């Protein structure tokens, strides 16, 4: 019984054998997937030098601003939570300050992340500090700058009736202009630096 069943299975197993051409294709597919799974943090991959080192001091200032903004938000939130817990009246303008601070923190933090190459990237394919990556960043920043300027032209510096501090609504949107403008400057400087580096190589 066992011999017959094993004998019946042999033709099936032989029929399932993969042709040599298909085997090589599978190997190539595995290598392709492995190359895609390689991340930018892989120590075996050479790191791309910073094409815009002259902007590091400016980025360091922005990093300090993000730290101050983060500490400020934490303190404001702590005061608000403590006030609700102990029944203490918290000034209502603290909510407006926390919203504006959070908006600036996100925009400046995103710019710092972009400069250090820790923002969006496609592992193994699309890396920061390359011409294609920086060109797309420049395009996106240009669109954001255009939209931000158009908004300021329409909105102006009018103060919203809901603002308790009398702060114009445009103050929050200026953070988007700072974010987009910073990316535009860095990406342009990097593209020029990469082109010059290739020309000298």
Polypeptide structure, described:
The protein has 201 residues and is mainly alpha-helical. It contains 6 helices and no strands. α3 runs antiparallel to α4. The radius of gyration is 28 Å and the shape is elongated.
Helicity, in percent?
A: over 70%
Sequence stretches where pLDDT stays below 50 over 5 or more residues: 32-44
- Strand count, sense and closure of the main sheet? none
Number of domains: 1
Q: What is the averaged pLDDT score? A: 79
Number of helices: 6
**Gyration radius, rounded:** 28 Å
The total strand number stands at: 0
Our measurement of the CA-to-CA distance between the termini, rounded to an integer number of angstroms, reads 73 Å
Shape: elongated
Structural class: mainly alpha
Strand portion: under 5%
Summed up:
This protein is mainly α and 201 residues long. The protein has helices at 2-15, 20-37, 56-86, 93-115, 131-155, 170-200. α4 (93-115) runs parallel beside α6 and α5 (131-155) runs antiparallel to α6 (170-200).
């Amino acid at each position: 019984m066992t011999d017959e069943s094993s004998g019946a299975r042999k033709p099936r197993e032989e029929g399932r054998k993969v042709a040599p051409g298909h085997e090589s294709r599978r190997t190539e597919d595995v290598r392709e997937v492995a190359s895609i799974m390689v991340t930018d943090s892989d120590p075996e991959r050479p790191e791309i030098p910073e094409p815009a080192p002259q902007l590091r001091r400016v980025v360091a200032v922005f990093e300090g601003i993000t730290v101050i903004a983060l500490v400020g938000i934490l303190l404001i939130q702590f005061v608000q939570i403590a006030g609700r817990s102990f029944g203490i009246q918290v000034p209502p303008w603290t909510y407006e300050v926390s919203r504006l601070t959070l908006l600036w923190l996100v925009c400046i933090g995103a710019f710092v992340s972009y400069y250090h190459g820790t923002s969006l990237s496609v592992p193994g394919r699309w890396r920061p500090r390359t011409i294609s990556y920086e060109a797309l960043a420049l395009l996106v920043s240009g669109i954001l700058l255009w939209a931000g300027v158009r908004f300021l032209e329409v909105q102006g510096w009018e103060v919203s009736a809901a603002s308790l501090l009398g702060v114009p609504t445009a103050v929050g949107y200026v953070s988007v202009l700072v974010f987009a403008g910073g990316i535009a400057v860095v990406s342009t400087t990097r593209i020029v630096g990469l082109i010059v580096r290739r020309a000298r190589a």
